[in-house]
Amino acid sequence: MNINHHLDEATLMSYSAGSLSQGMALVVAAHLSYCSECRERARLSDAVGGVLLESLEEQSVADDMLASILSQLDQSPPDLADQQPVRTPPSFIDPEIPAPLREYVDGSLDQLPWKRIVPGVAYYDMPWEGRGVSRLLRIAPGKSMLTHTHHGNELTLVLRGSFSDEVGRFQVGDIADLDDQIEHQPLVDSQEDCICLIATDAPLRFTTLFGKLVQPMTGF
Ligand SMILES: [Zn+2]
Known about the structure:
220 residues; alpha+beta; Jelly Rolls; 6-stranded antiparallel β-sheet; 7 helices; 11 strands; 20% strand; binds zinc ion
């Protein structure tokens, strides 16, 4: 896989610190499953975070806290088998679906119950509530997504096809890691539908009248 667009440093640090929304963390994990370059950067970012945490802990852990932690270790652990739902492994693994996403997508991308927004544009929401948006977006060749800006950050990972926008061309494995300075209108330039996993940490702001009209219906 030839990846040209990567995660930015701030996003990787937030991922290491565990401060991303669930949807954004999923997009980051999915890109890392494709991209050895960002995996190496994430490993370094984890190491830096770990050193910072250690230096903080050395100063702040009191003796009685340590005793309390040790006494908790002596207690028998809860029976995890009773608490965790049993997951049946999928009978078929679709290579088009990055590993972190497989937990939420049974079967293939084509089998999902896509909801159409307008002709040529459909979406499938990730099954959780939370801050921002987390969904798969499917756009037909030659179509574009509505022009929008963001209150916060937006991550878009290409799973199938490709698109181009003001930033460049994005193909399978590429991630668009955009902040709130950018107004863009991605146009699908592949022969097949373009399917992306997207997440924001705040609602999108559409800049056209049509976008503003459909916004309440789609939850964007
Ligand atoms: Zn990367």
